[in-house]
Amino acid sequence: MFSGLATGVHAVTETVFIIDNDHSVRRSLSRLLRSEGIRNECFESAQAYEDRDLHNGVGCVLLDINMPGMSGIELQARLLERGHNLPVVFLTGHGDVSSSVTALKRGALDYLTKPVDEADLLRAVRHALKLHRRVLADARVRNAIRARIDALTPREREVMLQLITGMPNKLVADRLQIATKTAKVHRAHVMQKMGMRSVAELVHACHLAGIEPGAEFDR
User: Fold this and answer.
1) Pairing of strands 40-43, 15-19
2) What is the Cα 129 distance to its own chain's centre?
3) DSSP alpha helix (H) spans, 96-209
4) Which of 85, 145, 152, 182 could staple 209 via S-S, CB 3.0–4.6 A?
């Protein structure tokens, strides 16, 4: 992809968090996942999970809806407020259209009903873990790009913003009121520091970092 940028997720612990007030359901789900080599942790309430330290690796949440105290829907809302990015799969025996619509609108990946087919459950869990692996990998690339941008001098950033609009060196120089030779030097420094082999690659990298043509940096 980009020179020197890691795009994969390094060795991290993948964990499914099972949140259900029914002990027999937690035990059954835990055994099923373990039989497939999927690590998991069980919680008897939404509050018990919320009290847990934030998980930094790959994972997903397998969440019941109707539980004593905080409901699954309420927990989902609170996790979103905290910037929680683990995918959520709902599994409930007492769901309704309203709760399913709310859950899916808030970003739940799936809404399964009990008793659930094991194959459907495993498919949903594996999809959630795959998605979260990709999310974390993309975040690593994005953060690496931003770190390289932060390492540019203010002038190099200005040159970079002109380059991603497709401007040739002469127009970059005119726009910034510098010599064409100076613009070329800054361009070379930008490409080297960013680890890019082409302007097209630079444009894509900036897009991933949330920087579009026409953007401005504070000097």
Assistant:
1) parallel
2) 12
3) 97-105, 118-150, 154-163, 169-176, 180-194, 199-208
4) 145
Q: Alpha-carbon distance 121 to 62, whole Å?
A: 9
The domain segmentation of the chain, as residue ranges, is: 15-141, 151-208
Architecture of the CATH domain 151-208: Orthogonal Bundle (1.10)
Element (DSSP H or E) covering residue 109: none
CA 75/CA 61 separation, integer angstroms: 11
- The tens place of each residue's pLDDT in the chain, 219 residues long, gives 555 565 444 445 799 999 999 999 999 999 999 999 999 999 999 999 999 988 889 999 999 998 999 999 899 999 888 888 899 999 888 766 677 778 788 778 888 988 899 999 999 999 999 999 999 999 999 999 999 999 999 999 999 999 999 989 999 999 999 999 999 999 999 999 999 999 999 999 999 888 887 766 554
Q: Is the whole model's pTM more than 0.85, yes or no?
A: no
137-to-125, 134, 165 alpha-carbon distances in Å: 18, 5, 27
Amino acid at site 102: T
How many Å apart are CA 30 and CA 37, to the nearest integer? 11
Is 15-141 a CATH 3.40.50.2300 domain? yes
